[in-house]
Amino acid sequence: MRDFASSSATTTSLLKKKLVRRSLSVTVIGFFLFLYVDQLQKTEKYAWMRRMTFRVPKSHEKRNHLPVGGTPKNHEDYDDIIIPREDDDDEVGNNGRWEDRSSDRKKYVPPLGELRFDDDDVERTTTRSEEEENVPPLPDFPPPPNVSPPPVTAEMERKFHSQSKVRVDKMSFPNAPDELIEVVNRMGLHRGSAVVVSFANSHHIELAVNFILWAKAIGMTTLIGALDDDAFEILKKTVGDESHGGEGQAFTYRVDHHLEAQGSSHASKAWKNFAKMRISHATSLLEFGFDVVMSDADVVWLKNPEEYLKCEKVSEDGKVVENLSFDIDGCEELKAADVIVSSDNLSPTSDERDGGNYAKGGVFNTGIVFLRHTKGGIQWAKQWNLHLSATDGRFHRLTSDQQVFNAMSRKENAWPGLEVMRMDGTRTLGPKENKRVLVAAEGDTLLGVFPVAKFNPGHVYMVQKFHEKEKKTPFAVHATYTFDGSSGDAKKWRFMEAGLWRVPEEEREEKFITFDASAHLWDDDAVDDHGAISSHDTPSITDHLVAGSGHIKALANAMAVAASLKRTLLIPPMPCWCDKVWGGHDNIFTFQCHYPGSRDSNHIPGTCPLDHFVSPSKLAREAKVNGVNIKPLGAAPESVKIMRGEFPTLKVGGGKEEEQQHGASSFAIPTHATELEISKLSNRLPLVIKLETTRDAFGGFTDRAKTKQFEHSINDIGLFPEQWCSECHPQGCKNLIPAATIAKGVLKPVREVHDQFCASFDKAGKFDDSHDDHIDDKEDTTNNNDNARI
User: Fold this and answer.
1) I want to staple 253 with a disulfide (CB 3.0 to 4.6 A). Which of 94, 183, 473, 762 is the partner?
2) Which CATH architecture does the domain made up of 176-424+431-478 adopt?
3) What share of the chain is helix, strand, coil (3-state, %, to 5)?
4) pTM of the model
5) Bias regions of kind Basic and acidic residues — which residues (predicted)?
């Protein structure tokens, strides 16, 4: 204890000594610092330090405390602060400490924050009160008018937002698919941009590739979702580099959805699930701030529709160009619509004349649907998706998204069930009114219908050829009204026929042969072969059946000659005298053999697609099996198209005597020519050759087994005639069709109220085998071996 107490006393003494030393050190340092500053103040450079004055705050009961680190908000709350002079010691008090000065002192009070010097050579500035006295009074102005700023309209807000690029985060849109958010952020588009959206799986991948290639060619902003991994890999290669983003680009993303091969049937449950998925993705894009064009992959876009849909000009940086006093292709007719849909109507003339009053009587086709990111547009998309999921009621029994869309548009149990929007409330439309805008039954949505002349159904573009007559290019062509099913191959053939196929083929050396598609109908032997055409320019089912039978036999001969020359057969458009209807469930005779609704186009007689006679997809498969390559003339390469049909001619005729006398010339073959005779010309013919006629052009292959195989595969299966049917109500078929023509087909009762006429074209049959012995003689002479074959 004693040792501990002694140690504590010693420690305390040491601490005290240290503190004293440190205090002395600080005092000395401070003293010398004071002397240094005092000496500085005596110099001319720093003399201002002695002459500086500030303001003193008022007494505690009057002043507001100065905020820490800030400045007083009201300068009047502070009196002047004065540094005391040597002759003011009696006023300072308490040895020079700061004192509060009352505001009634006579002494000069400088304003807040001003520096003043006591030197005589410095001029004193006037005080605030003196300045106020010298200011002349302001004149009496009238009170300002009560003018409020103009209201912010939806148009002004849209223009403002259109100048900013969209960035989406998951927290703001929790229901949006992650993959969609990722690709939207990658796209880097401005708010309000129009995005064309489509989807594809590997079963329809060629259509999707063609869709993208056209979109890229016209600079259309496109987003296409891949429904399986194989499709995604192909689409990524087709889209190309996405890194630069922006408008006018194509983008793809993998969708977490699988559509089975049989799911393309619009009546299947799989299609309904797919439809709900694509509508939900479109809804998310609307909520992100985009306008959305929902497009099927079997649509070809020939012109960028964005300016037409927005009805405004847009600069390269996405900003809206002012002065919207122009009308882009009649876009003012649709500018008020929240939703715009394409139509299955077939009369561009009636559609142009009557607008919405014509459109409301037809079926709306959801292959092309435009949705604005307006309240009405977003609400329509949500309701559309909701009705597709209905488990009872009006929408439950409907099998496709298109049926639901049409039902939403119209009042229940009424036709057409919707009316044209009238801007002035009257029943007479003005010249500039939105005559293409309808008031939909579902809510208050304004529904527009695309003009048929600008958004063509397949029939308008590929059968009527309206664009050729009017010399106008539509915005889009939808491959509808096909008769070879809804497969990708069927749609592909139609696009190829129309010259709308951009998908490149494998590069290879290729030579071509084509034929005159009408020569076999008019030559001297036509009557004996398949009958005679009674009229060039009058629609007739009788002439159509005759022509179809002749086309099928002509195709068989042309394909055999092409196989012998190892050339690609370019199939030309086929003349026709009657249109074709789906399933025969319309009375085509009432419209003079025109598809119902297309009578005013006068396209019959004309040329018809190949699927009006045979199945092109089936024919292409059988041709491939037999080593024959076929394609429509419209899909020929540019080197052929530039010849504009002016092809060298390969004549057919002569017979044995002429052949023995002259031999097979470089541009002629004998009638019923054999494979050996035709093949001798192979290397001497030009790039493209056209058969003068197909009648009696082919007599058989060198190998009889090959002939039988070709006849079975091509003539019997590939060229199997498609049945042609039409109802005859209310007149009855016997009152519309000649008795001789009825004898070629059959009459069937339909729906217990009227009858239906159905007939088939004649089959191609077999090749003329009268020269079989002649073929064998040539083989013996040439090869000295019965088993030798070429």
Assistant:
1) 183
2) Alpha-Beta Complex (3.90)
3) 40, 15, 50
4) 0.76
5) 97-107, 769-781
